[in-house]
Amino acid sequence: MPGDAPVTNRLDAARIEALIDKRFPQIHSGGRTLVIEETGERSARVRLRHHERHMRPGGTVAGTAMFTLADFAVYVAIIATLGEVGLSAVTTNLNINFLAKPEPRDMIADVRLIRLGRRLAVAEVEMRSEGMSDLVAHAIATYALPTRDRQSQRAC
Amino acid sequence: MPGDAPVTNRLDAARIEALIDKRFPQIHSGGRTLVIEETGERSARVRLRHHERHMRPGGTVAGTAMFTLADFAVYVAIIATLGEVGLSAVTTNLNINFLAKPEPRDMIADVRLIRLGRRLAVAEVEMRSEGMSDLVAHAIATYALPTRDRQSQRAC
Amino acid sequence: MPGDAPVTNRLDAARIEALIDKRFPQIHSGGRTLVIEETGERSARVRLRHHERHMRPGGTVAGTAMFTLADFAVYVAIIATLGEVGLSAVTTNLNINFLAKPEPRDMIADVRLIRLGRRLAVAEVEMRSEGMSDLVAHAIATYALPTRDRQSQRAC
Amino acid sequence: MPGDAPVTNRLDAARIEALIDKRFPQIHSGGRTLVIEETGERSARVRLRHHERHMRPGGTVAGTAMFTLADFAVYVAIIATLGEVGLSAVTTNLNINFLAKPEPRDMIADVRLIRLGRRLAVAEVEMRSEGMSDLVAHAIATYALPTRDRQSQRAC
User: Fold this and answer.
1) pTM summary value
2) Which chains touch A (3 or more CB pairs under 8 A)?
3) How many A-D residue pairs are in contact by the CB < 8 A criterion?
4) C15-63 pLDDT, tens per residue?
5) How far is B114 from chain C (nearest CA, A)?
6) How far are the Cα atoms of A151, C6, D152 from residue B56, in angstroms, in the given order?
7) I want to staple A107 with a disulfide (CB 3.0 to 4.6 A). Which of A48, A91, B110, D121 is the partner?
8) Beta strands in C3-131 (DSSP E)
């Protein structure tokens, strides 16, 4: 199993999905639309499936759906990198810019951790309508990481 | 009608709620939890009703629910101040800080427009668990305002 | 001496100014323009003196000068609240909105700590041209606080 | 000269430097430390020369110097892309994350415009100590662009 490799505690997409499903089943209330596509060292790709409940008049995607996509994708990248302990990471800040009107189709988020400190992780998220090169939204998120002495509490 | 007062095009809470319901019925999918409590010149107070679907393990409120509350509350303050034309305003940026674990109860957002320009509005949002004085979250949002020549399109 | 009161390690403006002068003399290179006006529990007021080097064409104040004012004012509020240990706090994020053209005069920054955790402090800064009520800029800053085990290193 | 090509109003580094020097000579007060290295379509690279006045105790670079670098580099990318009219663009928001302690040497900022609308430009800035691959800081900036009818005023 990938997550058991000797030099890393990285987890693969299926394992992360299972862990999150167990911990946060509410994320998928209304129907599963967030799908982990790929994970890597300090990175992840997550898909937001096109769904009626994310749409707004004029055929656009709700800002809330993009916030949720960005926040979830960063969480996935942290767990992919730190392993199961990353499940206790919590968002402390998220700054999102809405850049262009999304297409009425799936949206793809690409995450890159630009800082992975002892206590904080900072990530950048690029969001695009599937198959397009231009960004529709961009986010920077900070997560507080669990510390050894208080992994189950809010971390900072 | 409140919005027709001679020196202002301000609308009251009930009128704004009706306008938004008509334009964005999807906002309330899953059950109505966003309630406009008060509006004023460049300000608004909005309640997020405690609801199962906003909860996360440990009795906390989902970050996504707080993002939605902040974004919606700023939108209400803009419509309250500009009148019906404000319905075409769109979020361009939202920066949210999660400050403390919310209580498992209603949350109140207080919005203040700190800039109302010709093209952009900037607002500050303070979010508290009902009856508490400490902030649980804080947001700054920028909206692009509709311009006379293109009020029905994306504004910038 | 105010800073020695039994139930607090708060320091007064003169004491903080002396501590910062000793630690960061470079802040005042080019001439002293940052002046601590008041400090309180989780708050501070700092003045940026009008100076040729902060000006830009059209009689406006440089964005860089406002960033420096905001960052410095938050630092002062942290030291005012935590005492001398606060000198080791470091900025991790600063988000600034420029709202209106400043007047060519002194600028006043009012800081309020909206979160003071074990590891992070979050502060809000309102900046106004002296004697005016409208904001010219607004900032939210996060500082990493020194921890007991590594107070002299970068904190996160 | 690159800026005179028929299908673009792009300007090269030397021309942009001359234009900015003429308009904002104060930027270089204390000695010229900001140097335009390259410009491209929607991009720029700017160097901050190592200088005593940017240093802070422990051999680190002042946050203010990094803010100035980020803000200036975005401004350069806008002028490089829009031509001389871009000189009237003004910063409306800048969000900066300090990620790691910089080395006591030159710093390089790489800018990419991720949105270039009719009224707003949004840019991402990566900052690194020269010769290093890790980021020391990251910024997202929004500029209001001059409009045809009021190019010499504050744009929004």
Assistant:
1) 0.90
2) B, C, D
3) 35
4) 999 999 999 888 887 788 999 999 999 999 999 999 988 888 778 899 9
5) 7
6) 17, 41, 50
7) A48
8) 34-40, 43-48, 55-56, 60-61, 90-98, 107-116, 120-129
